[in-house]
Amino acid sequence: MPKYFSCRPVRMGFNFYRSGKISSCCFSLDPNLVIGTINDSITPQRIMAFQSKLLKSHRLGNAPKSCLSCPNFQMGEWSDHLEGKFTEVTLNHYKACNLKCTHCGYRKNDSMEHDTPHEQVLETIQACINANICSEKLYLGVGGGEPSLSKGIHDILQYALDNGWTADINSNAAKFSPLFAEGVNKGNFRLWLTPDAGTPETYLKIKGVDNFKNAWRNIKLYMLETNGQALVKFILEEGNIEDVPNMIITAKKNNVNKIVLSFDMNIKPSDFENYRKPIHYFLQLAEQNNIVVLKGAFLPDVLLKFNS
Fold first, then answer.
1. 91, 70 in Cβ contact below 8 A?
2. Beta strand pairing call for 3-7 and 73-77
3. Cα 220 vs. chain centroid, distance in angstroms?
4. Quick one: 267 exposed, middle or buried, by C-beta within 10 A (0-12, 13-18, 19+)?
5. DSSP 9-43
6. pTM over 0.85
7. 16-27 burial string, b = 16+ CB within 10 Å, else e?
8. What value does the mean pLDDT of the chain take?
9. Which runs of consecutive H residues, i.e. helices, occur in the chain?
10. Which pLDDT band holds residue 308 (cuts at 50, 70, 90)?
11. Collapsing DSSP states into helix, strand and coil, what is residue 75?
């Protein structure tokens, strides 16, 4: 196969965004990557054709600028066309959240966007399955706002569970969801809980809301209800790198034995060295407390080695 820069998520599926938009990309809000809107009566064939055209631009070396700056745009041996059915759909179509995280890329657009109705999202997914462009055993990446607060997301995830789909659910643990725990226990869902802080002061600084105790209470409950299978994820950023010791202490106190260490995707490579010592300190303390650390998104390999 030819070797060039391309994107795995684009090859595997597509993204639902706010205001009825269906997009090629799960990270960029570039209008050039918007396939269309649900209200335009977008068809499964149109989605497939748009993704195929985007991949052709990758292969020809004239990818959109937003692709060039995306961490998913990587050099590799890629097929020169889409292979089979889409297997992944990302849900970023809602904005219900109780926090105002400093690293959140969606906060700036809250006033300009509105939720896409969950019913329309599910109908469009099912139409793509019926048209044979999506797998009947779909994977959902749940991002957007805070899914534990949304009845519509619960309806979609219940449908997913009933139909044998799988999902990665990103939650700040604002609210405990029995459905999330049920899906984890059945092996269909992976639950990523992101407190990002080990003290109330740091939590308030980077999350913008005083919800530390409630979040960790729910994390402890998730650990109990899933027999430790839920994953706690810390996203290192400028506002919390001094809080590393407290992250480990608080995780240990709440029965967390496995942590995903991630990285704020907005950190510039020129600033990477500022994070080398905190990252190694994090790993050292985790090992001392018998906590397994797994590599999360955007964490530069040049800074450390990880458990696989």
1. no
2. antiparallel
3. 21
4. middle
5. HHHHEEEEESTTEEES-SS---GGGEEEEGGGT--
6. yes
7. bbbebbbbbbbb
8. 90
9. 8-12, 44-59, 65-68, 118-130, 151-162, 178-185, 200-207, 212-225, 244-253, 276-288
10. very low
11. strand
